[in-house]
Amino acid sequence: MSVWILTTGNSDVHLKHEKNWNDLFTLLCSELDLECQEFASATRINPNDSREGFTVPPRVLGLTYENQPDYYDELEFPLIDTFCKIFTDGNIKLEKIIILLTDQSNLFLEDLQRSKEKCPYWQDTISLKPLLIKYFDKKLKIQPEFIELKPKSKKGLEHWNATLELVKNEFEHIDINPLKTVYVSHQAGTPAISSAVQFASLGKFKKVKFLLSNQYYDDDYNLQAEPEIVDSSEYWRGIQIQKAKQLITSGFPGAALKVLDGVNIPDNTILNELSKQVDFFNLYSRGTDTSQDLNIPEAVQRVINTLDLIGVFFSNQNYLQGITLLAAAQETFMKSAILSHVARINATINIDGTDCRVSELITWKPLGLFLSDDLRNKSNDIKKQVLQKLKFPECTLDSEPISLAKNDDFKVTNRNFALVAWLKKLEPNFKLWSLLEWSCKKSRNSDDDLRNQLMHNLRGMETLEVIEYLCGGDTKGYAGNDVVEVYNKRVKQPFFTAIELFQLPFKREKVYKILQEIANGLV
Fold first, then answer.
1. How sure is the predictor about 453, in pLDDT bands with cuts at 50, 70 and 90?
2. Which residues contact 523 (CB under 8 A, 6 or more apart)?
3. How far apart are CA 365 and CA 295, in angstroms?
4. CA distance linking residue 148 with residue 242, whole number of Å
5. d(CA 104, CA 154)
6. Torsion of CA 435, 437, 442, 443, to 10 degrees
């Protein structure tokens, strides 16, 4: 047993002829003081074809014929007749018919409004209810149920958003077994109602089939119509594809991949590429040995990828992810640049009778950049000599001396204030951007460090705070609120300049271009 939901409109009920219309309508007007007396005449549907019937505003038609059983046979229901063929010819049993009627009488209360021929009030189908009850009793032996669409706002049923919300709310009250097949006819009525019924039915019911009426002319040029069933899976697939495309181009490949779960995608390479982007957004290289993560090429490539990802996150106002990644990208860059530059130093030092290249005595461990374990039990004097040959700075950028008096002091090689001073000594032409300089200061107001506030106190951030952070506290000359613009000019551009200055290896694949290509491939 199935359910049929159909909309109603001006094309649902016609007059076969106009012989009795004027008399019946005049009789009605004598009983009711209708404002439409001047524009409710019967109009031929097709002036060039006398075989087609006549149409009048639905509200007037219903009011005229609801108490005129002797004249019921003057009416015809062409669109509904076509739909009914699906059930009668296909022997599909219906347990319920739900008809949507429109009633905007609460929006048009004044006579002046109703005196206008184009007033939507006259196109309402609420008065067709008794005619439809009689039709379905005669045609399918079923007593239909009705949903009356009564807009609460003044926007009426032509307004897409308001009508969608109204239809969705009404559909929530429909109690149907989810295993039942629901046939939906949405061709009648306003475009806003038709679209809303499509959307709401797909969201509410599991098994939906859409009934369409296709019109054509036969060999004798007689207008014909044949019904067609369109499985909702095609509609659903199209909706999922559009959702996925929007998510992909907005920088949410993981969410897009979830939306596409169960969707038939003929080209598997699209899903494979999308999966790669999910890995890319997680800074994960599938099939790569993690022991290589702290190698310079792999680390620098992660920095490059991250700089693009940060732009994606900022453009979507995901500031938490962007700030966190930016702090990590800066630190990873400094370690990579230092190791890359000191690798060119050929100086050696004699340790226990063996000449060792000093460039091999600094190592990158998961916890950071430190002197090699080979120096663990060596004197502080030897360690100082190694650092001196590696051009490690004697003081910070603020000219504050870096003390190496105790054994634990040598862990300073992993402190940001030392790393940035070390880079400056290795490459005097290195120009710091404001955020890097500020975040690497030995003494700074940690209350202003958004990254620390996030990591240690789980505090959020606002747009202007992010802008001030990206500018290193110096927002002079900038009065806007575009985080992406500030990021690109104050951070990303000088960041890339520094990467090129230190001749760090990388390949550039613009993430937005890749995402757009993947989205375009979804059809």
1. low
2. 241
3. 10
4. 31
5. 9
6. -60
What's the chain's average pLDDT? Answer: 88
Between the CA atoms of 328, 334, 335 and 340, what dihedral angle is there, to the nearest 10 degrees? Answer: 140
The pLDDT tens digits for 177-205 are 878 899 999 877 788 999 999 889 988 88
Q: Which residues have CB under 8 Å from 511's CB, separation 6+?
A: 251, 277, 280, 305, 308, 309, 311, 312
Neighbouring residues of 446: CB distance < 8 A, sequence distance ≥ 6: 452
Helix (H) / strand (E) containing 223: strand 223-231
Average pLDDT over residues 343-364: 94
- b/e code 401-428 from CB counts within 10 Å (16+ = b): ebebeeeeebebbbbbbbbbbbbbbbbe
Q: Is the pLDDT of residue 454 over 60?
A: no
Where does residue 91 fall: left (phi above 0), alpha (psi -120 to 50 degrees), or beta otherwise? left
Tokens of 436: 């890097």
Q: For residue 390, report the phi and psi dihedrals to the nearest 5 degrees.
A: -85, 5
Q: How far is the C-alpha of 230 from the C-alpha of 232, rounded, in Å?
A: 6
- Taking CA atoms, 429 is separated from 398, 421, 426, 432, 433, in Å, by 17, 12, 9, 10, 13
Nearest C-alpha neighbor of 58 from the set 110, 99, 94: 99
Task: Write out pLDDT tens, residues 215-250.
Answer: 656 665 666 677 788 777 777 788 889 999 999 988
Q: Which amino acid is at 42?
A: A
**Whether the predicted pLDDT of 446 surpasses 60:** no
* pLDDT for position 456: 47
What pairs with residue 185 in β-bridges? 6, 211
Estimate the crossing angle of helix 21-31 against helix 58-65, to 10 degrees.
80
Residue 408 has pLDDT above 70, yes or no: yes
Q: Are 36 and 25 in contact (CB under 8 A)?
A: no
CA-to-CA distance for 177 and 286, rounded, in angstroms? 45
Tell me the two tokens of residue 375: 């120096």
The packing angle between helices 319-342 and 493-501, to 10°, is 20
80 pLDDT band, cuts 50/70/90, is: very high
CB 343 within 8 A of CB 375: no
DSSP 395: B
What pLDDT score was predicted for residue 223?
61
